[in-house]
Amino acid sequence: xxxxxLTATALCCSMPVLAKTxxxxxxxxxxxxxxxxxxxxxxxxxxxxxxxxFELTDGLSLDVDRVTVRGAGMDESILSFAGQLGAGxxxxxxxxxxxxxDFAIEDSKGDGIKSKGADRIxxxxxxxxxxxGPKATNGAYGIYPVEAxxxxxxxxxxxxxxxxxxxxxxxxxxxxxxxxxxxxxAGIEIExxxxxxxxxxxxxxxxxxxxxxxxxxxxxxxxxxxxxxRNAIINNNTDNFAPEGNIVAGVPAGTGVMVMANRNVQVxxNAIINNxxxxxxxxxxxxxxxxxxxxxxxxEVYIANNVYGRSGFAPDFDGGKQLAAAFGGxxxxxxxxxxxxxxxxNDTVPVLSLGLTKVGQSPTEAQxxxxxxxxxxxxxxxxxxxxxxxxxxxxx
Amino acid sequence: xxxFLAAAALCLAGFAVSAAPTRPVAPVADAMITSAGxxxxxxxxxxxxxxxxxxxxQGVELYQLNSALFTDYAEKYRYxxxxxxxxxxxxxxxxxxxxxxxxxxxxxxxxxxxxxRLLETRVLLHRTDGWLALPYVWNAEQTEATLKVxxxxxxxxxxxxxGNEHDxxxxxxxxxxxxxxxxxxxxxxxxxxxxxxxSHDTLDMLLSNNxxxxxxxxxxxxxxxxxxxxxxxxxxxxxxxxxxxHCHNRQGSASNSGLFLTYEEKSxxxxxxxxxxxxxGRGSGGFEFAIAPGEPDQSIMMHRLKSxxxxxxxxxxxxxxxxxxxxxxxxxxxxxxxx
Lengths: 396, 339
Fold this sequence. Notes:
The complex is a heterodimer of chains A (396) and B (339).
Chain A: H1 2-14, E1 21-24, H2 30-40, E2 46-49, E3 52-55, E4 60-62, E5 68-70, E6 77-80, E7 89-93, E8 99-101, E9 104-106, E10 111-116, E11 121-124, E12 127-129, E13 143-146, E14 149-154, E15 157-159, E16 164-169, E17 172-177, E18 180-182, E19 186-191, E20 194-199, E21 202-204, E22 208-213, E23 224-229, E24 232-234, E25 255-260, E26 263-268, E27 271-273, E28 278-283, E29 299-304, E30 307-308, H3 320-326, E31 334-336, E32 344-345, E33 351-353, E34 369-370, H4 389-393
Parallel strand pairs in A: 1-2, 2-5, 3-6, 4-7, 5-8, 6-9, 7-10, 8-11, 9-12, 10-13, 11-14, 12-15, 13-16, 14-17, 15-18, 16-19, 17-20, 18-21, 19-22, 20-23, 21-24, 22-25, 23-26, 24-27, 25-28, 26-29, 27-30, 28-31, 29-32, 31-33
Antiparallel strand pairs in A: 33-34
Chain B: H1 2-15, H2 30-34, E1 60-63, E2 75-81, E3 89-90, E4 96-97, E5 103-112, E6 115-127, E7 130-138, E8 145-147, E9 152-159, E10 165-172, H3 175-182, E11 183-184, E12 187-188, H4 200-208, H5 232-243, H6 268-271, H7 300-305, H8 324-335
Antiparallel strand pairs in B: 1-2, 2-5, 3-4, 5-6, 6-7, 7-8, 9-10, 11-12
Helix pairs in contact in B: 5-8
């Protein structure tokens, strides 16, 4: 209530003050000039990046609400962090109602762009890239919003992240739409998040295409209500190059979609083609944990109306090869560990159940069989994600 | 105003006959602390009597912490200013709540060629809309420090207390980076001044100057992590508290990590024992746990403390060197944990 009132007041007050555009060109002292502009910007301002490559020496950060940072295009305005000496990411955003669009972040030492607690953030037509291609020494996440409500990531390109290209963590009300994720460990990852739509993305040449995960011991847990629809998930067979220890280091190369420890997830109308381990995996969290509030199992996962290409011809997990041989050379398109409840598959492809009976059991103890669901089953409907109109308007 | 006073002082001095003239010094400029805007010069505040900022003005008091944050072996000089007639109050957790108009001032420098040189002075100003953090950078002549909201880097060569020479690119944090460490639920707050972390002498000074309310209760002090007469575990937790917990707490910049390193944290997994990384990326160093009991060399915490590679190194801001003594302490602590 107070917030609404304040917003209204802010709108009234802001009328006489004209939002200004601050243009920053590439060249000498780019670090100081650009960082100063990001600090001195006032709500409503546009910080415009000129064309060319900005050679930066430290991470950049933005902590002013309602600021737009806009370049001349993802191949025109390039923020290069190849010479970065400090900070955990290229650009850090900690304020609300920020729009980032039409520029590139290259070769940051840690994450590309991180936004933390930044509500109503728009990432549009950005490129975040590690230009040397997939390497374990690349930063973890390309586009990395965390702990926020209302997130829109659209028309962006991410390449080379040693964890996830686009990673949304511990957030609510999320749309990841029409992006390209290429040569990352995970193309797109939705983790410990509620109410997300991942649609119309091209996800290719990653280790795993789209991951929907939930992890223990975190402030926000219980990931649920995630729609993965109308994506092209193709050739995600890149060897896993994530540093050990990270959860994605355990994702088999050749994974199309992986749903882990989430509830009410729909995988529908995607084209899932030529992923060598599996088109879709539905599994529980496998590692030991100490957290009474955490449910490690997958629940109410609905898979329907997808188009499947070849898959499962070179499964990248212990015992996978033997398992594939037992099924005539390739695993069924969908692999389910048998844990949790409510898996519904309305596609005609076969579903392999590993028949595990307890969380954490090794796949070598699998009792593989074809999964038989009880009845045809219908999905629990997901409400469409609606973002504030100001966010969609920022895309224009 | 200041110019006027100085001029007046000069005039008066002209009439002085016998005693050496004492140049009156303008008091701390309270309006600079409380009114909107960002003063361009450190001297605008009047925190110091001298241009080189070594002599605190009336009401500005030097203070000491039990355990201090490592910043590339820089020497730090901390001052506290509370407007005349007002007091700080310790809340239930022993965190000092300062009245509006208070300021915390911290100068960073090194002894270079036998002389103390300041590189930067950071101020935290308590205004009606909250705390504001600003960094000021010293000129080569050491006569003025100028606001640098975007921070800067300064090449420095110095010798550390163990006699090792270092040649570093010292990073003055930008205004946002100040907030990254000083943020609690998104608002800027002081870090050091908590009853449990203020030295005994400092507490005495604050109380006898009436700068701290007497009823502040007992808060068991955090030990000096460098004091090897104290229990290893307490020293290690003191080190983590002052070096890491400003981000690694439930309301801090690293809240999403699930790694919470405050002195009070009780849950072993949140302190890092057997805790797997969440968003560490290559920061994990290929290890599975933040702390692998008994195995410091298999612990992500040690990997990140011993790295100077941005993207791996922790803390993310303010460290381009490894704090060997701190790393040795934590390594000893982890090694002593039962596997």
